[in-house]
User: Fold Diaminopimelate decarboxylase from Nonomuraea recticatena.
Amino acid sequence: MDIWPQTTAWTGGQLHLGGVGAVELAEVYGTPAYLLDEADFRARAQAWLDALPDGDVHYGGKAFLCPEVVRWLDELGLSLDVCTGGEMAVARAGGMPPGRVVFHGNNKSPAELRRAVEWGIGCVVVDSFTEIDRLAAVAAELGVRQRVMIRVTPGVDPRTHAAIATGGEDSKFGFSLAAGLADRAVARVAAEPSLELYGLHSHIGSQIVELEAFGLAAARMAEFAASTGVTRLDLGGGLGVAYTPGDPAPPTPAELLAVLRKETEGLRLAVEPGRSIAGPSTVALYEVGTVKGRYVSVDGGMSDNPRPGMYGAAYTAALANRRSDAPLSEVTVVGKHCESGDVLVRDLPLPSDLRPGDLLAVPVSGAYQRSMAGNYNHVPRPPVVAVADGSARVIVRRESEDDLLRLYP
Ligand SMILES: Cc1ncc(COP(=O)(O)O)c(C=O)c1O
Ligand SMILES: N[C@@H](CCCC[NH3+])C(=O)O
Assistant:
């Protein structure tokens, strides 16, 4: 399937995004850089709103967040899911009304809970009995009746990588339905005058490309909602994306919603898509530094994309600055970091005349890449450049070595 952002054009062999050429983008903003196709991001967010006009779409900010994206979400009418004080700070900086923010996390600190309640956060998704006590105390002290959802683990296997499956019985997240903990959590929240039981929440995992597990979780959650009298269900995020042209097309938001609705009649639904909005909107642009045998080294690597190393994620890449009619040969695209596992793409056919100075573009680089990027080997993190209607602007600036040195007293 076509995995490039919607405004992608190949003119004279050169990648253009949002009407701007990759060569110009590399000259002006440097490489590596994440190039975000604003129209693509907005269209994907809109598709979720269209699929759930009578519910709430909370964008999963962990996939990728910055103040400018918060402004787009606000403008479009999405809400926002944050899971740390840091993400909450970005939501605030971007001007998201606090009432449209939902706060997740299995270990929110008392200080984070206080900040959230003081800010007027729309909803806190409670994840442990300790947290229910903490939040009730903070809300009581601040004289607030805080809306909460209860995170439930419905005991389903989403058939995704083990590190990103969250809906099974053995999970650090939520209250188990099967073990009766979810029932006890409902009773505990109901007994706290400073808490309002607003809804039930489940999130079964991420990069899920089959609909069965979503349907099963929805059915279990709907049954539990009926037994507790709760009328709102937030069924989380998790819809997967295609990373390579050989991956099957994932279900659309409308297809997922059809499955969820079938199981949850009469309930108000919310969803929390992250990857399916941000992932395909963005292309990572690298410059080739060396070509040695089968190894093509680029100027980024595992610090800007830890996903191949962490989850065995497969990506593709394409020559982005020129046309080449040279025969293809299989290469391994590697980064500049100090370990052999620093591989971005394995066994990729690329033109055999690939040379230093060429640009390589890696599509589907918008989710869990900049947000998970680190500074291994003191490599500064790349910028995010939004492209639209023939112009480009920085929405996350490139880190500099000075930024890194500023950390040292
Ligand atoms: C509670 C919660 N909601 C939403 C998301 C977003 O998930 P995804 O990016 O897979 O749509 C996550 C991450 O998996 C999550 O933990
Ligand atoms: N970081 C994971 C997704 C985690 C989902 C967050 N709850 C990935 O890159 O696939």
Q: What stands out?
A: The longest strand covers residues 282-292.
